[in-house]
Specification:
Blueprint (H helix, E strand, L loop, with lengths): L14 E3 H8 L3 H9 L6 E3 L2 E5 H10 L16 H10 L3 H13 L4 H21 L5 H18 L12 E5 L7 H13 L3 E4 L6 H10 L3 E7 L6 H15 L5 E4 L6 H6 L4 E2 L3 H10 L1
Parallel strand pairs: 4-5, 4-6, 6-7, 7-8
Antiparallel strand pairs: 1-3, 2-3
């Protein structure tokens, strides 16, 4: 009878496998795996297996003398966007959703999920890519996961009863960041507006057609994240003003708009530095 060679799972000296981590925490493997999926315990995949850095494991042990009660920490102050970012960079869509669910259970509002969890995670990933610390596929992968998360959350933002009016939101030709547009759309829906989300990279003539063909438009909102899209935004706004006059106020926001004076130079009626400011501008008419 030929003896079969047994392959033993191993990891470098500075890290352990998730099975080893579970043993060191004195918990079942699936409990340790849940810690990873909730963003409680940082981990990464190597050669098809989950690995945990020893210093991350020691930090986790220090934070939780009784690992089985680690989920109680979900109700304490947590930097949720960092936990989400780790799952996004790992390409772990299910884990990213688990972090969002845990944040909701801990009492984080829907609006804060967008503005204080999803948004800062994506901004930090974008900054890392801009510095050359990440490949562009990381940013695209994270965007795809966040898009799916927003697809699941979106219906929760729709209120009941009569709306306050119609709002058109979109981004000009050459601006490819559509997640920001969708976030603004959902947050405005939550405030009682009927919102028509035109997405990103929309030609000016099509944006104008949407405004003309939508009844009772209260305002048009233009988002620009990339400085390279400023010229296209300026042309879009002046074309909109020429087509609709001042009957439809145009508000602009996004990372590429730096001040109220900047927004005025681009031709907008007002600068929406965040959603609360935008809501205030809409209330003024």
């Amino acid at each position: 009878m030929v003896a079969q060679k047994v392959i033993v799972e191993s990891a470098p000296a500075h890290e352990v496998t998730l099975h080893e981590a579970a043993a060191m925490l004195d918990v079942h493997y699936m409990t340790a795996y849940r810690y990873v999926r909730l963003g409680l315990l940082p981990a990464h995949k190597a050669a098809g297996t989950w690995r945990v850095l020893l210093h991350d494991l020691r930090e986790f042990q220090g934070q939780s003398p009784q690992p089985l009660d680690a989920e109680a920490s979900l109700k304490k102050n947590v930097v949720w966007w960092e936990r989400l970012e780790a799952r996004l960079l790992a390409g772990d869509g299910s884990g990213a959703w688990a972090v969002v669910e845990a944040a909701l259970v801990a009492g984080v509002s829907l609006e804060d999920i967008y503005t204080k969890v999803l948004s800062p995670a994506m901004v930090n990933i974008g900054d890392q890519w801009a510095r050359g610390d990440l490949e562009i596929y990381h940013e695209h992968q994270a965007s795809a996961i966040v898009g799916r998360i927003m697809g699941r959350l979106g219906p929760r933002f729709v209120g009941r009863g009569r709306t306050k009016g119609s709002i058109i939101v979109g981004a000009p030709e050459g601006e490819h960041h559509d997640l920001v547009v969708s976030m603004v759309a959902d947050l405005l829906r939550q405030r009682g507006w009927e919102v028509f989300d035109l997405g990103a990279d929309l030609p000016a003539h099509s944006f104008i057609a949407a405004v003309k063909n939508t009844p009772e438009v209260a305002a048009a909102c233009v988002s620009i994240t990339s400085p390279t899209a400023r010229d296209a935004a300026r042309k879009l706004i002046f074309s909109l003003r020429e087509a609709a006059g001042d009957a439809v106020p145009i508000y602009i926001g996004g990372a590429a708009v730096l001040s109220a004076a900047d927004a005025e130079e681009l031709g907008a009626h007002g600068w929406a530095s965040d959603v609360d400011v935008l809501v205030g501008l809409l209330a003024q008419g």
